[in-house]
Design brief:
Blueprint: H1 3-15, E1 29-34, E2 37-43, H2 52-59, E3 70-75, H3 87-93, E4 98-103, H4 113-120, E5 124-127, H5 131-137, H6 139-146, E6 151-158, E7 163-165, H7 181-193, E8 196-199, H8 201-207, E9 222-226, E10 245-249, E11 254-256, E12 259-263, H9 270-279, E13 284-289, H10 291-299, E14 305-310, E15 319-320, E16 330-334, E17 337-343
Parallel strand pairs: 3-4, 4-5, 6-13, 6-14, 8-9, 8-13, 9-10, 10-12
Antiparallel strand pairs: 1-2, 1-3, 7-15, 11-12, 14-17, 16-17
Length: 346
């Protein structure tokens, strides 16, 4: 690992502290180096708050060293006035002579203009250090801007014999938890890291889930349910006031307090649903069920990763879990459960 990679790697480490708090902005980390020593660092901590470069510059105790230093940043400095002033202008103001960047920002308001502004003002810019590693960290942000849809995470639990639900012939509205409490807490942590969580009509009707992060400390995701004809009862838990809820339907478009009805031409079209969520500035979504909803995304090849928890139990009879053609990328233990992580390879 060369010197530039060493400091970009540090940028990536601290950038990830913003996970779940900065969307729809990207996660960004920055360090400032003088004489091969870090004299300041910062990351984007909260949407609407100071960017990584601002926090890094503010953390330098001796500002006279800035015009002799190099600033490293995991994503191209912004060059537009949004919630905060442009970071590229701040770098020029402090006469930092060298900028090292991992990724160019795909956001249309930036996309190379930050680098251009820096170079026009006599600053040396190096781009592409640990580019792939940085892109993985901001895969949600990159997917949202390059594919014009949210980053999609499929998630389900299944038994050893491949069932994701009990036989509901005699128990149509009974919730049955498959995995351990440790896996439940992990699932709630995952929820806190994404913008939204989506389920189908039957999951709400059968399980009446809250789709919140009550097992961990973290923000609740936006709840999204597909309800084509608006048949769900209003006493379902997802219609409480604990989080914003979007109802994808074919009937109406309106907002009532925290409930937003989003109309699409066809709820059977995954493309239309994802376009609607993109319009709502939702950068990432966990799809938590049920089987038919998960299978729709798999059949349309519109997913990015899948997290499958396999419990140490069997049902012998019930609803079969979806099948993925891809091989598991990572396998890990969560208590007595096994986590398999898949990527679509799209």
């Amino acid at each position: 690992m060369n010197v530039h990679e060493k400091y970009i790697q540090r940028c990536l480490e601290i950038a990830q502290k913003g996970l779940g708090n900065v969307s729809p902005n990207p996660m960004v980390g920055s360090v400032i180096v003088y004489n091969d020593k870090i004299i300041g660092e910062g990351y984007h901590q909260q949407y609407g708050g100071p960017h990584a470069e601002v926090n890094a510059i503010n953390s330098v105790s001796d500002k006279s060293l800035l015009n002799k230093s190099t600033i490293y940043v995991s994503l191209e400095p912004c060059n537009h006035f949004g919630k905060t002033p442009p970071c590229s202008h701040l770098i020029v103001k402090h006469q930092i002579p060298k900028v090292v960047v991992a990724n160019i920002d795909p956001f249309a308001a930036v996309n190379g203009t930050g680098i251009k502004y820096l170079e026009e003002n006599g600053i040396e810019v190096i781009v592409g250090i640990l580019e792939q590693e940085a892109a993985v960290i901001n895969r949600r942000f990159f997917t949202y801007h390059t594919k014009k849809r949210p980053y999609i995470i499929l998630k389900w639990a299944q038994t050893q014999d491949g069932f994701m639900d009990i036989d509901r012939t005699d128990n149509p509205n009974t919730s049955y938890w498959i995995t351990t409490p440790a896996s439940k807490r992990l699932s709630h942590q995952w929820r806190s890291e994404e913008d939204g969580i989506l389920v189908g009509f039957n999951t709400v009707r059968n399980d009446n889930p809250s789709l919140t992060t009550r097992e961990v400390t973290g923000k609740n995701p936006i709840r999204i349910v597909i309800d084509r004809q608006l048949d769900l009862q209003k006493d379902c838990v997802i219609f409480d006031e604990s989080s914003k809820t979007i109802v994808i339907n074919e009937q109406i478009e309106k907002a009532e307090k925290n409930i937003h009805y989003k109309k699409v031409n066809s709820t059977h079209s995954i493309h239309e649903i994802l376009t609607a969520l993109h319009e709502e500035n939702i950068q990432s979504v966990i799809i938590e069920g049920g089987k038919a909803t998960l299978q729709q995304f798999i059949d349309a090849n519109l997913w990015d990763e899948a997290r499958v928890l396999t419990a140490d139990k069997t049902f012998n009879l019930g609803l079969k879990a979806p099948l993925l053609q891809q091989k598991a990328f990572v396998t890990a233990k969560v208590d007595s459960d096994t986590l398999h992580l898949f990527y679509s390879g799209e």
